[in-house]
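Dear Dr. L.,

I hope this message finds you well. Following up on our conversation about the binding site, I have prepared a predicted three-dimensional model of the protein together with zinc ion. For your records, I am including the exact sequence and ligand specification that went into the calculation, followed by the structure tokens. Please feel free to forward this to your student if that is useful.
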Amino acid sequence: MLRTIDLEQAHAEDSALRDELRRISLALANSKKVVVITGAGISCSSGIPDFRTAGGIFTKKKRFGVKAQDVFSANVFQTTQGQQAFNQVMGELKEAIDQAQPTSAHQFVKQLYSKGTLLRSYSQNIDGLEELAGIPEALTGNGRDINPDGKNVQLHGTIHKLKCFTCFVESEWTEDFLSTFKSGQAPKCPACEKDQDPNRRRRNIGSLRPAIVMYDEDHPFGDDIARLQNHDKECQPDFLIVMGTSLSIPGLVKVVNFFAEDLQEDSILYVNKTTASATLSKPFGYHIHGEADLWVNMVFDDWGHTTTPTPPKTPAGSQLQGLDDEDPVYMIQLEACNQFLFLSLPVLISSIPFHAEPTKAAVEVSCNQCPRIRNPPMANG
Ligand SMILES: [Zn+2]
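The resulting structure of the complex is given below.
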């Protein structure tokens, strides 16, 4: 059954809600194969406008007579005004994206990648902030090559490459191209121009367009993406996080359903400031209601107590051997201050005498967020 946790409420008071979030942080810290599906909501705080954010590129009601919300549908190319509106929005968007930095939400996905527990990130965003955060792209080059170490898939392509729809060659952005787009025009394809043979009949010279996929267009590398998704599902993910998307795009809902069907409800999180607009075939276990950045910062806060060294598989001479499950993290509540600690096995072991019961002895671990606890009580008196 879906549990909704209001982030502001959990943040404001150290309530039962906050404890529930800590348990989710712990479960995430112990998960091994996480699939993350994200949308525009994770990039908002970087300054990139989305459709709903006031004061952005899309708040101009019309450009060249075209409504802002129609700019990303494929039939925008059917009229000259549509093309002009699209070009101008692309120029302004590229300029805004070039100024943007990854958000806490991107850093969180990066952290999963660094921990080795990110199975894959599927992003609806075209801004490339995942790659900027250090998560390698799965679809590289002209999109046709799968990078086996790539962990992020841009479901709607990327704004950072330009593509000619006559010769299909990709080009890099230049300052001149940016100005051309901002004026509402599309630059001529350099590859087509270079290919002109003066001795032959002139061929068409194509124009450039960012290599993004419009809402009602098929992804040119859809087969590759489907293969990746099948591969990932065969790997049996143990956690699914859907973050910063209202799930209004049917294609994305399909991806969520695809991964959700084999998972326990408790391992399916929805993190978004609005409720999902689609009904899923398998409900989410939790709706963490609020800004993605606020939630991931709480997770970081919880994980802040977690140490990074890889724990030994079987710590010699310790009674904790039986507890080991590869590299679990333990959540411990201190008796004196009720703070929660997240401890990896080596820290737990080094913090307590080997003969002690871990649950009792853990109170000897001092809390680094709580100056009141300088001399935590002894466990085994
Ligand atoms: Zn061309």
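In brief: The chain has three domains: 3-46+101-156+219-303, 57-99+159-212, 314-381.

With kind regards,
A. P.
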